[in-house]
Amino acid sequence: MDTEVVVHRIGSNSPLCRTSKFALFRWPEMTLMEQPSSYLAHLGRRSPSIATSRNSAYALSYWFNFCRAADIDWQHSSIDDLYDYKTALETTVSQKTGARRSAGTSYQYVGAVVEFYDFAAGRCWYAGDIRKSEAPQRAIRADHDKLAHTKSGALPTRKRSPIAQKRNRSGTMIKPLSIGSLQRLLSEMGPDANDAPAGSSVRNRLIADWGWAVGLRISEILSLRADQFSDLVGDPSVPWVHFSIEVLGKGNKLRRVSVPSWLIEHTQIYVRGERQRCVALGRTSEERLFVSTADSKSPGQGITPRRVEAIFGAACLRAGLFVNVRRLDPETGLMCLRQVPAHCVHDLRHTYAVLTYHAEVTQGNSEPWKKIQAQLGHSSLKTTTDIYLEYVNAHNDFRNASIRDLVGLSRR
Protein backbone atom coordinates (compact mmCIF):
# COMPACT_ATOMS: atom_id res chain seq x y z
CA MET A 1 0.00 0.00 0.00
CA ASP A 2 1.30 3.47 -0.90
CA THR A 3 2.52 5.66 1.92
CA GLU A 4 0.65 8.91 2.47
CA VAL A 5 1.45 11.84 4.74
CA VAL A 6 -1.43 12.63 7.08
CA VAL A 7 -2.15 15.21 9.78
CA HIS A 8 -2.87 13.79 13.20
CA ARG A 9 -4.16 15.54 16.31
CA ILE A 10 -1.71 14.89 19.13
CA GLY A 11 -2.92 13.32 22.36
CA SER A 12 -2.26 14.84 25.76
CA ASN A 13 0.39 12.20 26.57
CA SER A 14 2.63 13.24 23.70
CA PRO A 15 5.68 15.38 24.57
CA LEU A 16 4.87 17.52 21.53
CA CYS A 17 1.47 18.42 22.98
CA ARG A 18 3.02 21.08 25.20
CA THR A 19 3.67 23.25 22.16
CA SER A 20 1.62 21.86 19.27
CA LYS A 21 -1.70 20.14 18.71
CA PHE A 22 -0.78 18.66 15.32
CA ALA A 23 1.95 16.48 13.82
CA LEU A 24 2.64 14.73 10.51
CA PHE A 25 2.70 10.97 10.19
CA ARG A 26 3.34 8.46 7.41
CA TRP A 27 0.22 6.40 6.90
CA PRO A 28 -0.60 3.50 7.23
CA GLU A 29 2.37 2.67 9.47
CA MET A 30 1.78 5.94 11.39
CA THR A 31 5.43 6.78 11.90
CA LEU A 32 6.14 10.31 13.02
CA MET A 33 7.79 12.73 10.58
CA GLU A 34 10.07 14.23 13.18
CA GLN A 35 11.42 17.29 11.39
CA PRO A 36 8.14 18.76 10.10
CA SER A 37 6.49 17.93 13.42
CA SER A 38 9.29 19.74 15.26
CA TYR A 39 8.59 22.74 13.04
CA LEU A 40 4.89 22.61 13.99
CA ALA A 41 5.95 22.51 17.65
CA HIS A 42 8.04 25.62 16.95
CA LEU A 43 4.95 27.32 15.51
CA GLY A 44 3.03 26.34 18.62
CA ARG A 45 5.59 28.09 20.81
CA ARG A 46 5.56 31.17 18.59
CA SER A 47 1.78 31.46 18.29
CA PRO A 48 -0.98 30.11 20.57
CA SER A 49 -3.39 29.88 17.64
CA ILE A 50 -4.56 26.33 17.01
CA ALA A 51 -5.81 27.41 13.59
CA THR A 52 -2.29 28.51 12.61
CA SER A 53 -0.81 25.12 13.54
CA ARG A 54 -3.64 23.22 11.84
CA ASN A 55 -3.44 25.21 8.60
CA SER A 56 0.34 24.90 8.45
CA ALA A 57 0.14 21.16 9.14
CA TYR A 58 -2.29 20.57 6.28
CA ALA A 59 -0.32 22.82 3.92
CA LEU A 60 2.84 20.82 4.62
CA SER A 61 1.02 17.50 4.22
CA TYR A 62 -0.10 18.58 0.72
CA TRP A 63 3.49 19.44 -0.19
CA PHE A 64 4.95 16.19 1.14
CA ASN A 65 2.30 14.18 -0.70
CA PHE A 66 3.15 16.09 -3.88
CA CYS A 67 6.81 15.20 -3.36
CA ARG A 68 5.88 11.56 -2.76
CA ALA A 69 3.77 11.40 -5.92
CA ALA A 70 6.54 13.07 -7.97
CA ASP A 71 9.24 10.86 -6.40
CA ILE A 72 11.02 13.87 -4.91
CA ASP A 73 13.05 13.72 -1.69
CA TRP A 74 11.85 16.80 0.17
CA GLN A 75 15.33 17.39 1.61
CA HIS A 76 16.72 17.61 -1.94
CA SER A 77 13.84 19.49 -3.56
CA SER A 78 14.50 22.65 -5.55
CA ILE A 79 12.82 25.92 -6.36
CA ASP A 80 11.75 24.37 -9.68
CA ASP A 81 9.91 21.64 -7.78
CA LEU A 82 8.10 24.28 -5.78
CA TYR A 83 7.12 26.09 -9.00
CA ASP A 84 5.67 22.81 -10.26
CA TYR A 85 3.76 22.42 -6.99
CA LYS A 86 2.37 25.94 -7.29
CA THR A 87 1.21 25.19 -10.83
CA ALA A 88 -0.42 21.96 -9.66
CA LEU A 89 -2.31 23.84 -6.95
CA GLU A 90 -3.62 26.41 -9.42
CA THR A 91 -4.68 23.91 -12.09
CA THR A 92 -6.43 21.26 -9.97
CA VAL A 93 -9.60 21.28 -7.89
CA SER A 94 -9.78 20.95 -4.14
CA GLN A 95 -10.94 17.53 -2.96
CA LYS A 96 -12.76 19.26 -0.13
CA THR A 97 -14.77 21.78 -2.17
CA GLY A 98 -14.63 20.38 -5.69
CA ALA A 99 -13.74 23.87 -6.95
CA ARG A 100 -10.57 25.43 -8.30
CA ARG A 101 -8.37 26.83 -5.57
CA SER A 102 -8.20 30.59 -5.40
CA ALA A 103 -4.93 32.45 -5.91
CA GLY A 104 -5.04 33.31 -2.20
CA THR A 105 -5.23 29.65 -1.20
CA SER A 106 -2.27 28.75 -3.40
CA TYR A 107 -0.36 31.69 -1.94
CA GLN A 108 -0.95 30.44 1.59
CA TYR A 109 0.00 26.84 0.82
CA VAL A 110 3.23 27.81 -0.92
CA GLY A 111 4.05 30.41 1.73
CA ALA A 112 3.74 27.77 4.45
CA VAL A 113 6.21 25.54 2.59
CA VAL A 114 8.71 28.40 2.21
CA GLU A 115 8.41 29.14 5.95
CA PHE A 116 9.13 25.50 6.77
CA TYR A 117 12.18 25.34 4.50
CA ASP A 118 13.61 28.50 5.99
CA PHE A 119 13.27 26.88 9.41
CA ALA A 120 14.75 23.62 8.09
CA ALA A 121 17.76 25.44 6.62
CA GLY A 122 18.42 27.04 10.00
CA ARG A 123 18.48 23.56 11.56
CA CYS A 124 20.80 22.21 8.83
CA TRP A 125 18.11 19.81 7.59
CA TYR A 126 18.07 21.38 4.15
CA ALA A 127 20.71 23.00 1.94
CA GLY A 128 18.76 23.67 -1.27
CA ASP A 129 17.48 26.87 -2.84
CA ILE A 130 13.95 27.07 -1.38
CA ARG A 131 14.68 30.03 0.85
CA LYS A 132 13.10 33.32 1.71
CA SER A 133 16.40 35.14 2.11
CA GLU A 134 15.34 37.42 -0.72
CA ALA A 135 12.11 38.28 1.07
CA PRO A 136 11.89 38.93 4.80
CA GLN A 137 9.20 37.21 6.81
CA ARG A 138 6.94 40.26 6.78
CA ALA A 139 6.86 40.01 2.97
CA ILE A 140 6.03 36.29 2.92
CA ARG A 141 3.31 36.82 5.50
CA ALA A 142 1.77 39.94 3.97
CA ASP A 143 -0.25 42.34 6.08
CA HIS A 144 -3.41 40.39 6.98
CA ASP A 145 -5.93 43.19 6.72
CA LYS A 146 -4.80 44.25 3.26
CA LEU A 147 -4.29 40.71 2.00
CA ALA A 148 -7.71 39.59 3.24
CA HIS A 149 -9.55 42.27 1.31
CA THR A 150 -7.78 42.59 -2.03
CA LYS A 151 -8.03 40.42 -5.08
CA SER A 152 -4.31 40.14 -5.41
CA GLY A 153 -3.01 40.63 -1.91
CA ALA A 154 -0.16 42.43 -3.68
CA LEU A 155 1.89 44.88 -1.65
CA PRO A 156 3.85 46.72 -4.34
CA THR A 157 6.18 48.45 -1.88
CA ARG A 158 7.45 45.14 -0.45
CA LYS A 159 9.67 42.46 -1.96
CA ARG A 160 8.20 38.99 -1.91
CA SER A 161 9.36 35.58 -2.91
CA PRO A 162 8.43 34.99 -6.56
CA ILE A 163 7.10 31.58 -5.54
CA ALA A 164 4.61 33.15 -3.16
CA GLN A 165 3.66 35.85 -5.64
CA LYS A 166 -0.05 36.33 -6.15
CA ARG A 167 -1.71 37.64 -9.27
CA ASN A 168 -1.56 41.39 -9.52
CA ARG A 169 -5.14 42.51 -9.85
CA SER A 170 -6.71 45.69 -8.64
CA GLY A 171 -10.03 46.14 -6.95
CA THR A 172 -11.67 45.33 -3.66
CA MET A 173 -13.00 41.99 -2.55
CA ILE A 174 -15.29 43.16 0.24
CA LYS A 175 -18.91 42.09 -0.05
CA PRO A 176 -21.12 44.13 2.29
CA LEU A 177 -24.75 43.12 2.33
CA SER A 178 -27.25 45.45 0.74
CA ILE A 179 -30.01 46.67 3.02
CA GLY A 180 -32.54 44.33 1.44
CA SER A 181 -30.18 41.37 1.71
CA LEU A 182 -29.39 42.18 5.33
CA GLN A 183 -33.07 42.38 6.19
CA ARG A 184 -33.73 38.97 4.64
CA LEU A 185 -30.72 37.45 6.33
CA LEU A 186 -31.65 38.77 9.77
CA SER A 187 -35.15 37.39 9.35
CA GLU A 188 -33.68 33.94 8.65
CA MET A 189 -31.17 34.18 11.51
CA GLY A 190 -34.03 34.32 14.01
CA PRO A 191 -36.36 36.69 15.84
CA ASP A 192 -35.40 39.98 17.39
CA ALA A 193 -35.00 39.55 21.17
CA ASN A 194 -37.84 42.02 21.82
CA ASP A 195 -40.24 40.23 19.50
CA ALA A 196 -39.25 36.60 20.07
CA PRO A 197 -42.06 34.18 20.97
CA ALA A 198 -41.69 32.47 24.33
CA GLY A 199 -39.18 29.65 24.23
CA SER A 200 -37.69 30.56 20.86
CA SER A 201 -33.97 31.01 20.33
CA VAL A 202 -32.57 34.50 19.76
CA ARG A 203 -28.88 33.53 19.88
CA ASN A 204 -28.21 33.33 16.15
CA ARG A 205 -29.88 36.66 15.42
CA LEU A 206 -27.96 38.26 18.27
CA ILE A 207 -24.64 37.02 16.91
CA ALA A 208 -25.48 38.60 13.56
CA ASP A 209 -26.47 41.86 15.28
CA TRP A 210 -23.04 42.09 16.93
CA GLY A 211 -21.53 41.81 13.46
CA TRP A 212 -23.49 44.36 11.44
CA ALA A 213 -24.26 46.82 14.28
CA VAL A 214 -20.85 46.85 16.00
CA GLY A 215 -18.42 45.56 13.36
CA LEU A 216 -16.86 42.74 15.37
CA ARG A 217 -14.98 39.83 13.86
CA ILE A 218 -16.41 36.39 14.52
CA SER A 219 -13.59 35.64 16.97
CA GLU A 220 -14.34 38.87 18.84
CA ILE A 221 -18.04 38.08 19.06
CA LEU A 222 -17.34 34.64 20.48
CA SER A 223 -14.85 36.05 23.01
CA LEU A 224 -17.53 38.18 24.70
CA ARG A 225 -18.36 37.12 28.26
CA ALA A 226 -21.77 37.08 29.91
CA ASP A 227 -20.53 38.96 32.98
CA GLN A 228 -19.68 42.00 30.84
CA PHE A 229 -23.39 42.82 30.66
CA SER A 230 -24.50 42.20 34.23
CA ASP A 231 -24.04 45.75 35.52
CA LEU A 232 -25.00 47.75 32.44
CA VAL A 233 -28.25 49.71 32.71
CA GLY A 234 -29.71 51.12 29.52
CA ASP A 235 -32.54 53.51 28.96
CA PRO A 236 -35.18 51.95 26.69
CA SER A 237 -36.39 55.41 25.70
CA VAL A 238 -33.04 56.21 24.01
CA PRO A 239 -31.90 52.93 22.45
CA TRP A 240 -29.50 54.68 20.09
CA VAL A 241 -27.24 55.86 22.94
CA HIS A 242 -24.04 53.82 23.07
CA PHE A 243 -22.11 51.92 25.74
CA SER A 244 -18.39 51.12 25.75
CA ILE A 245 -17.52 47.39 25.83
CA GLU A 246 -14.08 45.77 25.93
CA VAL A 247 -13.37 43.10 23.32
CA LEU A 248 -10.41 40.82 22.68
CA GLY A 249 -9.24 41.59 19.17
CA LYS A 250 -6.76 40.13 16.71
CA GLY A 251 -3.37 39.41 18.20
CA ASN A 252 -4.94 39.15 21.68
CA LYS A 253 -5.16 42.93 21.88
CA LEU A 254 -7.91 44.46 23.98
CA ARG A 255 -9.84 47.44 22.67
CA ARG A 256 -13.05 49.24 23.54
CA VAL A 257 -15.92 49.43 21.07
CA SER A 258 -19.11 51.43 21.02
CA VAL A 259 -22.29 49.34 21.35
CA PRO A 260 -25.83 50.75 20.92
CA SER A 261 -28.10 50.56 23.95
CA TRP A 262 -30.68 48.46 22.09
CA LEU A 263 -28.11 45.75 21.46
CA ILE A 264 -27.06 45.76 25.12
CA GLU A 265 -30.72 45.33 26.06
CA HIS A 266 -31.20 42.45 23.60
CA THR A 267 -28.03 40.78 24.88
CA GLN A 268 -29.23 41.01 28.47
CA ILE A 269 -32.55 39.43 27.48
CA TYR A 270 -30.59 36.52 26.01
CA VAL A 271 -28.36 36.23 29.10
CA ARG A 272 -31.25 36.21 31.56
CA GLY A 273 -33.40 33.89 29.47
CA GLU A 274 -32.16 31.49 26.81
CA ARG A 275 -28.52 31.42 27.90
CA GLN A 276 -29.36 30.84 31.54
CA ARG A 277 -31.60 27.88 30.63
CA CYS A 278 -28.94 26.32 28.40
CA VAL A 279 -26.17 26.65 31.00
CA ALA A 280 -28.41 25.19 33.69
CA LEU A 281 -29.40 22.30 31.43
CA GLY A 282 -25.79 21.50 30.63
CA ARG A 283 -24.66 22.14 34.21
CA THR A 284 -21.70 24.13 32.95
CA SER A 285 -19.78 27.10 34.30
CA GLU A 286 -19.22 28.58 30.84
CA GLU A 287 -18.16 32.23 30.92
CA ARG A 288 -18.48 32.99 27.22
CA LEU A 289 -21.59 34.86 26.17
CA PHE A 290 -22.75 32.66 23.32
CA VAL A 291 -23.35 29.01 24.16
CA SER A 292 -24.84 25.97 22.43
CA THR A 293 -28.62 25.71 22.49
CA ALA A 294 -30.78 23.42 24.61
CA ASP A 295 -31.31 20.94 21.77
CA SER A 296 -27.58 20.44 21.09
CA LYS A 297 -25.52 17.49 22.31
CA SER A 298 -23.67 19.73 24.80
CA PRO A 299 -26.02 22.54 25.88
CA GLY A 300 -24.44 25.49 27.58
CA GLN A 301 -20.97 24.99 26.08
CA GLY A 302 -19.20 27.72 24.12
CA ILE A 303 -19.73 27.51 20.37
CA THR A 304 -17.07 27.50 17.65
CA PRO A 305 -16.52 29.83 14.69
CA ARG A 306 -17.08 26.91 12.32
CA ARG A 307 -20.52 26.31 13.84
CA VAL A 308 -21.43 29.97 13.49
CA GLU A 309 -20.32 29.99 9.85
CA ALA A 310 -22.48 26.91 9.20
CA ILE A 311 -25.52 28.58 10.78
CA PHE A 312 -24.88 31.77 8.85
CA GLY A 313 -24.40 29.92 5.55
CA ALA A 314 -27.65 28.01 5.99
CA ALA A 315 -29.49 31.28 6.69
CA CYS A 316 -28.00 32.79 3.52
CA LEU A 317 -29.31 29.88 1.46
CA ARG A 318 -32.79 30.20 2.99
CA ALA A 319 -32.74 33.95 2.32
CA GLY A 320 -31.84 33.39 -1.34
CA LEU A 321 -28.36 34.85 -0.87
CA PHE A 322 -26.37 32.29 -2.82
CA VAL A 323 -24.41 31.82 -5.99
CA ASN A 324 -24.33 28.81 -8.30
CA VAL A 325 -20.86 27.35 -8.73
CA ARG A 326 -19.51 24.36 -10.59
CA ARG A 327 -18.25 21.75 -8.17
CA LEU A 328 -16.90 18.24 -8.55
CA ASP A 329 -19.24 15.52 -7.30
CA PRO A 330 -16.90 13.09 -5.47
CA GLU A 331 -19.31 10.18 -6.03
CA THR A 332 -19.80 10.55 -9.78
CA GLY A 333 -16.62 12.41 -10.68
CA LEU A 334 -18.75 14.85 -12.73
CA MET A 335 -18.98 18.63 -12.47
CA CYS A 336 -22.35 19.91 -11.30
CA LEU A 337 -23.94 23.17 -10.17
CA ARG A 338 -24.27 23.75 -6.45
CA GLN A 339 -25.66 26.59 -4.40
CA VAL A 340 -23.15 28.12 -2.00
CA PRO A 341 -23.69 31.10 0.34
CA ALA A 342 -22.90 34.45 -1.25
CA HIS A 343 -21.69 35.85 2.08
CA CYS A 344 -19.76 34.85 5.19
CA VAL A 345 -19.97 36.18 8.75
CA HIS A 346 -17.07 38.59 8.11
CA ASP A 347 -19.23 40.39 5.55
CA LEU A 348 -21.33 41.69 8.46
CA ARG A 349 -18.24 43.58 9.63
CA HIS A 350 -17.90 45.13 6.18
CA THR A 351 -21.61 45.97 6.25
CA TYR A 352 -21.13 47.83 9.53
CA ALA A 353 -18.27 49.89 8.10
CA VAL A 354 -20.19 50.91 4.97
CA LEU A 355 -23.41 51.74 6.81
CA THR A 356 -21.54 53.70 9.47
CA TYR A 357 -19.65 55.71 6.87
CA HIS A 358 -22.84 56.89 5.20
CA ALA A 359 -24.56 57.53 8.53
CA GLU A 360 -21.63 59.65 9.75
CA VAL A 361 -21.43 61.62 6.52
CA THR A 362 -25.16 62.31 6.68
CA GLN A 363 -24.74 63.63 10.22
CA GLY A 364 -22.03 66.02 9.02
CA ASN A 365 -18.95 64.17 10.26
CA SER A 366 -16.12 65.27 7.96
CA GLU A 367 -13.80 62.51 9.21
CA PRO A 368 -15.94 59.35 9.36
CA TRP A 369 -12.97 57.05 8.78
CA LYS A 370 -11.44 57.78 12.19
CA LYS A 371 -14.50 56.46 14.00
CA ILE A 372 -14.63 53.38 11.79
CA GLN A 373 -10.89 52.75 12.25
CA ALA A 374 -11.20 52.87 16.05
CA GLN A 375 -14.27 50.63 16.05
CA LEU A 376 -12.76 48.01 13.74
CA GLY A 377 -9.41 48.01 15.54
CA HIS A 378 -7.23 48.85 12.53
CA SER A 379 -3.79 50.04 13.56
CA SER A 380 -3.60 52.37 10.56
CA LEU A 381 -6.19 54.73 9.12
CA LYS A 382 -4.81 53.88 5.68
CA THR A 383 -5.81 50.26 6.18
CA THR A 384 -9.41 51.36 6.73
CA THR A 385 -9.56 53.64 3.73
CA ASP A 386 -7.76 51.16 1.48
CA ILE A 387 -10.39 48.55 2.28
CA TYR A 388 -13.55 50.64 2.04
CA LEU A 389 -12.99 53.90 0.16
CA GLU A 390 -13.48 52.47 -3.33
CA TYR A 391 -16.68 50.72 -2.32
CA VAL A 392 -18.37 53.69 -0.60
CA ASN A 393 -17.49 55.98 -3.51
CA ALA A 394 -19.27 53.58 -5.84
CA HIS A 395 -22.28 53.11 -3.53
CA ASN A 396 -23.20 56.52 -2.16
CA ASP A 397 -27.00 56.32 -2.22
CA PHE A 398 -27.54 56.19 1.56
CA ARG A 399 -29.29 59.08 3.27
CA ASN A 400 -30.33 58.06 6.81
CA ALA A 401 -28.33 59.08 9.86
CA SER A 402 -28.64 55.86 11.89
CA ILE A 403 -27.49 52.45 10.72
CA ARG A 404 -30.46 50.94 12.56
CA ASP A 405 -32.73 53.24 10.54
CA LEU A 406 -30.84 52.30 7.40
CA VAL A 407 -31.69 48.66 7.99
CA GLY A 408 -35.31 49.60 8.68
CA LEU A 409 -35.49 48.45 12.30
CA SER A 410 -37.58 50.31 14.85
CA ARG A 411 -35.92 52.22 17.67
CA ARG A 412 -37.23 50.20 20.55
Automatic annotation (TrEMBL):
Q: Which residues form the Tyr recombinase domain?
A: 172-403
The UniProt entry's sequence similarity note says: Belongs to the 'phage' integrase family.
* InterPro entries associated with the record: CB (IPR044068), DNA_brk_join_enz (IPR011010), Integrase-like_cat_sf (IPR013762), Integrase_catalytic (IPR002104), Tyrosine_recombinase_XerCD (IPR050090)
User: CDD domains, per this entry?
Assistant: DNA_BRE_C
Gene3D superfamilies, per this entry? Intergrase catalytic core
Is the keyword DNA-binding assigned to this protein? yes
In its UniProt entry, what is this protein called? Tyrosine-type recombinase/integrase
Show where the Core-binding (CB) domain sits.
30-121
Q: Which superkingdom does the taxonomy of this entry point to?
A: Bacteria
Q: Which UniProt keywords apply?
A: DNA integration, DNA recombination, DNA-binding
Identify the Pfam families for this entry: Phage_integrase
